[in-house]
Structures are given as C-alpha cells and as structure tokens.
Amino acid sequence: MPAALPFTSHRLLAPMEGVTDPVFRDLVLARNGPDALGGAFTEFARVVQVALPRRTLREHLGPRRFAQPVGLQLMGSAEELVAESARRAEEVGAPLVDLNFGCPAKGALRGCAGSALLRDPSAVERMVRAAVGAVERVPVSAKIRAGFDDDARLEDLARAVENGGAALLTVHCRTKAELYCEAVDWSRLARAAAAVKLPVCGNGGVRTHADFERLRRETGCAFAMAGRAALGDPWIFSGARASAADAARFLLDYADALRDEAGVSARGSAGRVKQLLQHWTAGELCDADRASWISEAAPERLFARLGELAGAERDPKLNPTIIGTASTCVAALESADGF
Ligand SMILES: Cc1cc2nc3c(=O)[nH]c(=O)nc-3n(C[C@H](O)[C@H](O)[C@H](O)COP(=O)(O)O)c2cc1C
Asked: 43, 99, 149, 203: which sits with the fewest CB atoms below 10 Å from its CB?
C-alpha cells in the first residue's frame, strides 16, 4: 500500500529546471494558500555516478517550509544511486520523492535518464520499485511523458509506475518527440487514468485557472499540474486577479530574493525577471508593451519601472500558512493529513 499523498489540494505546480528553484517556488507558494495550490516540486536533481549528497538535496528543498509539500525530484539511470538518493531525500525532510521520466534534454538522453527510460517500461518499473524500497514513510511519485516517439506504450508505462509501487503518476501529455509543442491531447491523460488504480496527475497545456477543473473533468485525473502558465501568472492556482501593483511587487520581490538568497547580481536578476516577463500575463503589466520591458537593457531602469507600478507598499502578500524554516518543518509535516 503506497504512502498517503501529502497534497493540500488538487492543483500542483510543475517542476521546472532553471525556474522553480526555492526562490521562485516559495514566492508562488506564499501567494497561493493550501486550498488553492496543493503542492510543488523541486527542479530535477540529477543523479550521476554517486548518490546525491544531503547538502545538495537540502539546497533543492530550500530554506522555508509551507503548509503545502514540495516533492524532491530525482533524475538518473542507475537504480541503486537513485534509490540511495531517495533515502537521503527522506532523511533531510522531503515529504515526497518524485522520479523524472520525462526530461528530453540531450544530456539526460546521453545518460539514459529522463525520457530515455520511456522506451523501456520495465526499466521504469525497476527504478520506481528501487526508490519505493529505499524510503520508509514518504510517498514516491513518477512523472512520465505520454511516450518517447509516440504514445503506443502509454498504458504500459502507466502500469509500470503502478506496479513499481508509486503513490502518484504524473503524465505530461506530450511525447518526448513533441517536446513543448503548442497542441495538447488530453485524451492521453484519460487513457493513463483509465489504465491504473493509483491517482493520476494530468499535465500539459493548463493555461487558466478554469483549466485545472476542466482537465480533471475531461480526463478523470485526480490532480492537475501547471507549468509555464504559472510563470506568467503565479496566482493561477487561486484564480485571484492580481493588480499591476501586485504583479510588479512579485517581480521586485523575486529580484530581491535572487540577490539576497542566491547571490545573483543585479544584471543576472534583471535577466531572470525579463525571462518571466516573456510569459507574464498577471496584472496586465506588460500585455501592451512587452517588447519595451524585455528590451530594457539597464537593470536599474527595469527595477525603477517596476517600482513605479508597485507603489510605496512593498509588503509581499504572504500566505499566512507559511510554517517556517527547514528546521521547524518536521513537526508540521508529521501532523499534515494525507489528501
Ligand atoms: C523551463 C522548463 C523546465 C522544466 N524542467 C522540468 C524538470 O526539472 N522536471 C520535470 O519533470 N519537468 C520539467 N519540465 C516540464 C514541466 O514540468 C511540464 O511537464 C511541461 O512544461 C508541460 O506543462 P505546461 O504545458 O503546463 O508547461 C520543464 C519545463 C520547462 C518549460
């Protein structure tokens, strides 16, 4: 019997390498209460040659804890190393361990990790079983794509994850060959959900708050996960309509946290803010003149423009359910009800 899932609602934030580091992720968790956003995931932590050190795992989890769990995602090809990393992840406080079977990057494929494993459902099953066997209490989940070249083995892959003992299967409905194409086929999510008894989380093409519910209704998935849409509207989980001032404050808080917590330079943090502005829809901040925001070369001018919109009050609208820092989280995790 897989361990109970710790999520607080059925809307989840997708893992995104280079974006959902603790800085961005925690700003999103802080603005969406546990009823709105049920949980998030770290970017993938790559397991190569040795099991990941506890320090690296702690860095991925970050310094703060919220009412919502943040699953630690691992990606590797050697079962015993991934299993030992999963064991250590639990030891350092990860409330859930997620396994990546979807990354299409060349580096992952060369190392036979990520989406490379989609060609062999039995390898997926072995990896899941090894991780499940290595942890004591926390659930293990797996995130797959609908297939490698095509979706012909989708049901086999879903059953492999179930047979391996996972507590949750997340399906990104695009195949590896489709990368991040615009079109999505949610009937694949319905196929995966029908093939297994374990809860399935549908992912791919959630663009609005209403899409979370629509995905669940149309596919039978228990959970729905958004990736890129959350980069443009961090309030997508609650459905709150942010004002331009709220939106500008988010981006300034992001820049400040990158500087204070990750030691990123002003130029670097302006670059990260502009990366978000490419997707940004919240508060209609830049819908009319996106190009002028993205081409702003001087960091101080970008921050001054945001500062004008943010107004004097810069208190972030923090989620009152922040539990605290990593050291205070264990008791809270132990008391969290399964969802
Ligand atoms: C920049 C970026 C980085 C990503 N990194 C990861 C990752 O680390 N682990 C993972 O499982 N998926 C990763 N993904 C895939 C997303 O989790 C998600 O499956 C995909 O974006 C489809 O959802 P969407 O259509 O809502 O964006 C990444 C996607 C993007 C755009």
From this structure: 149
